[in-house]
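Complex record, three chains
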Amino acid sequence: MTTPRLNSEADITKWRESVLSKRDPKKPTIIVCGGTGCIAYGCKKVVEKVKEEIKTQGLEGNVNLKVTGCHGFCEKGPLMAIKPNGVFYKRVQVEDVAEVLTETIKNGKPVERLLYEDQNNQKVLSEDKIPFYALQNRRVFGSNIELDPTSIEDYVAIEGYTALAKALKMKPEDVINEVKKSGLRGCGGGGFATGRKWESCRNAKGDPRYVICNADEGDPGAYMDRSLLEGNPHRVIEGMIIGAHAIGSHDGFIYVRNEYPLAVKHAEMAIEELRKAGILGKNILGSGFDFDIKICRGGGAFVCGESTALMASLEGKVGEPRAKYVHTVDSGLWGKPSNLNNVETWANVPFIINKGAEWFSSIGTKGSKGTKIFSLVGKINNTGLVEVPMGMSLRKIIFEIGGGIPGGKKFKAVQTGGPSGGCIPEAQLDLPVDFDELSKVGSMMGSGGMIVMDEDNCMVEVARYFTDFLVDESCGKCVPCREGLRQLSRILNRICEGNGREEDLNMIEQLAETITDASICALGGTAANPVMSTLKYFRHEYEAHIKDKKCPARVCKKLITYRVIEENCTGCTRCARVCPEKCISGKAKEVHFIDEKKCIRCGLCLDSCKFKAIGVK
Amino acid sequence: MPDLKKVDEILKKHGNDVGQLIGILQDVQGEFNYLPKHPLEHVAQKLGIPEAQVYGVATFFKAFSLKPRGKHIVHVCMGTACHVRGAKKILEECERDLQVAAGGTTKDMKFTLETVNCLGACALGPIVVVDGEYHGRITVEGTKKALKKVAE
Amino acid sequence: MENLITINIDGKDVKAEKGSNLLPVLSKMGIFIPTLCTHDQIKPYGVCRLCIVEWVRGEGWTKIVTSCDFPVKDGQKFLTNSEKVRRERQMIMELILARSSNVPEVVELAKRLGVTEPRFPKDEEGCILCGLCIKACEEVVGVSAIGFQSRGPNRSVVSPFDDEAHRCIGCGSCVYVCPTNYIKMEEKDHVRKIPLWHVEFKMQKCKTCGQDIAPEKQLRYIRRKADLPENFFDNCLNCRP
């Protein structure tokens, strides 16, 4: 079906009705998650098999197949859902497809082994009964399961672009007021009041003005923006057009991280369709408003997630930030007023216009309204993306939605806010998650990454990891960040290698103060959070490394030794065979022995042993 | 001698827009498998910007290589979620297997091994991407197999 | 005098031009503010961070800001020598000294700030990455022959591809502004060389006295830019009629 040219709100309504009239809501649809995560699981082969089986089983015309964006329950991928009966299948392999079509589509019966099993080993039939989903409030992310991101019709079918049509009939100031009233705050980490930002930009002097979408999601462990842009590019774009109308901008940019090729592809396809439909370009929906969007790819630099560095990159320069004494809403891209918002922030805008600020702010906390999407990763059972109302406790998110820690291990800490955030220990798990509460304990909500750690993670090593990451990503412009982080990294590496000194902790604190206060941008400005928060809550680990030259979590290689637990060793020789340094000796059926001097602590012997005969001290 | 006509096509595709410099360089790298000197000087000339700016951008961003890269590109994700699940071990296995340090290319120009600071597929950590194909939940054994398969 | 505003420095009210950066105001008052990356003919780059002061925003609420690029507004209050400022300036100086431990200008400034021995391993980098050479070449001369490469601790000043800087005209502005004498220029046998940028230039001789005036390329550039006649630099300043 070709995309029609739309010249008014009425045209959208007509098109939607036409699209819906051709769809039979009773006809079963097989929905396969096609997000990057599930692609890595091999869902493409599953999709091909579904197409094949539809033909083989003579079901052509009787069942639809839809490949959507990320559904969020990444741990259980490849994911499949069947509408309208609502059956939800996990870990669907190519071998399962034929049965799904025969049993579920033809005979209306679920395939038991593919159903989700809860903690009591009860099978759960549909998505809304699975605790992972049931406890969420998927206002923004929930649409992913309904959309083929490459189909503009799918978006129109779920009332896409009705918010835009409504906004174009409103005065820009009224649009801004509605966003202000809603309490929406920036979802990329800054948490600045979106409505106020739009207002400042609108009131700034200078033309042209720009609207920018920051899709440079660089926090390791966070992939909310990727899944939103991949799975629902239209919603993000609709938000941007509304914002452009409010601010008076005719040129928009989406700056996408280099490592997100699928998001770039889907956004480009969406823009092409929107130009055909007259929703981007000149005279949008016959309103007289012009606006178009360019997509720009990043080149692999975390610092380009910082707004001034991003804008420098959009000008064809290196991603060097500049002082924010003059705000970007006054002077940003090419020295003109620029409004930059995160992907998730833009995605919230159409709801605010369609359903109103009051609806939007009906959930959340006093200072943080609405919902937030988090990526729950690391040592957690239910890895994936979750969307919850602001104010839900960390404990609920990690244990009830996340299903707790795998392998019966004990929770140790959760890192929130990526490299700009800090580690939060067990004692603080009842904190509500919102923009302000986590900052009070030395972390921050940030863009929404939540990395869960257990008893087998060394917190000094975690601080070292984040600091090394930031050294690698620092643009190098200013002394406190470039030199300060370099020296901080040196100290942390020394400590992890058993060469820590008594004065190190004091020096870390002094460095942290200057790096935080005197760096140009927020990369340096928040760089000390990982080390300072781990020092605050896990000081004993630092002291063990420095004073006792021991790593309590048995992670830091130079401080641990691998040995054979003689009572358990059966002499199967597996460990000796996988050892890359050939430092394990022993005859078959005899107890083996590890030469500590040659051992490089790679851990391969531990992985290979089936008798728990390798111990780490 | 790199074909500059291809570079002109790439510049035209991006509308000779200096704001698209990263995109332009990515396409140039896609064409030559790295960023050779003459195409970069040509880009600077056509866009009317100093070579120093193009060189600065080419050396600033991790996506670019000014040295010829191997036939097969192996990326190991070192993001936090993957790190917490043992990505370091996987990287060490790659280095051992390919006999090259991260960031380098093997002498026979068959493999380039690089680290990436998070691919955004964190549920599947640790991850290795070989020639654009994602291998999630990879073990050391799996790494060996994946590399061997490509080498053949 | 609508252009003047009032700001408060260390408890004293002072008049300043609206929108002026803070550092020139402090310098005019005779207050010593350490800097390594400023030059009055070049726009502030704000990289060394030594010029930091404390901006008093409210009761118990201050922010550390760099004075070189901070545009002042009416009523703002600053502390230029508080304990916090001194402490953080010393740490910054210590970091710079550790990186460039044998550069006399750095050692001297450090001493003035009370920093003699850095508590970090010492390196001997002659370049302090202030960027003045690059900015001078870009803003004052207008040829942008050199730039930064790479990022983070690997950042360095270089000619493109670390090869001959094609756009360089041999004017020596970079040498002139470099605060640490890192960039060297040699002249011998009527040829000027700047080894760092891999360039050499034939010098133009005065037609009258035979003394070297400047590189031919530089003079060609100036003639073109200022639309001067071909023979404008045939004679040196002393020999002009």
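Note: Chain A has a mean pLDDT of 94.
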